Amino acid sequence: MIDLKGKTAVVFGLANKRSIAWAIAQKLNEAGAKVAICYQSERLKKEADALLPELNDAKSFQCDVSVDEEIERVTEELKAAYGTVDIVVHSVAFAPSDAIKNDFLLTKRDDFRVALDVSAYSLVAVARALEPLMSAGGSILTLTYYGAEKVFPNYNVMGVAKAALEATVRYLAASLGPKGIRVNAISAGPIKTLAARGIGDFNKILDTVTERAPLHRNVETAEVGNTAAFLLSPLASGITGEITYVDCGYNVTGM
């Protein structure tokens, strides 16, 4: 059984109750952790606050991880509220819609920069800011996708951003390992989240996974949450710098 009693977990990237971030927050809460959920903007505050009663003694904080000043502010707020942090979940990704739907060759410089900044660099920024609060060590987890390794239709610049994110996981694991902080990623299979709406013909990807994955189905958010709880717990104390697939086995298939 996973026991996270006495631990404080910060979950960045909550969008709504269908998001992977929410599934992870629920599992961490079930394991006994105090959970702080961070939403991007005032527009998402109502959604986040409405979910708080479903968690035990949870708090919500606003933080746009593409803005250093907001990361600095939320770090001070977390320090004041909890003192220390043990677990950090980074469930954040964004690319301008044109950069996703248009041919990759047409990717604009600014759109490329934004995708890499929000989807990959923000993990570095968050880790650097919260590392001083992780004085007893801890664990950081981010979310990636198989499009980092293989070309998926209508994923385009986000695939490049996820590839950068996966490399970032490995380099951060090396940087933070001496401080007792582990850094890992989950490569989740396709899930109908708010972010997935921006990917054209997304249902075709879902159908392909159902057909070809060894389990012949798509993964559920709760299953990603279960794996996250394990990786963020002491049960995974020897695991860092890894990309763990939770995709019903789709990544192992060829034809």
Automatic annotation (TrEMBL):
Pfam families: adh_short_C2. Its EC number is 1.3.1.9. The active site is at Y145, Y155. Keywords: Fatty acid biosynthesis, Fatty acid metabolism, Lipid biosynthesis, Lipid metabolism, NAD, Oxidoreductase. One of its GO terms (biological process) is fatty acid biosynthetic process. NAD(+) binds at G13, S19, I20, Q40, D64, V65, V92, K162, I191, K192, T193, L194, A195. One of its GO terms (molecular function) is enoyl-[acyl-carrier-protein] reductase (NADH) activity. Pathway: Lipid metabolism; fatty acid biosynthesis. It catalyses: a 2,3-saturated acyl-[ACP] + NAD(+) = a (2E)-enoyl-[ACP] + NADH + H(+). The keyword Nucleotide-binding does not apply. The keyword Transmembrane helix does not apply. Substrate binds at A95. Belongs to the short-chain dehydrogenases/reductases (SDR) family. FabI subfamily. This is Enoyl-[acyl-carrier-protein] reductase [NADH]. It comes from Terriglobus roseus (strain DSM 18391 / NRRL B-41598 / KBS 63).
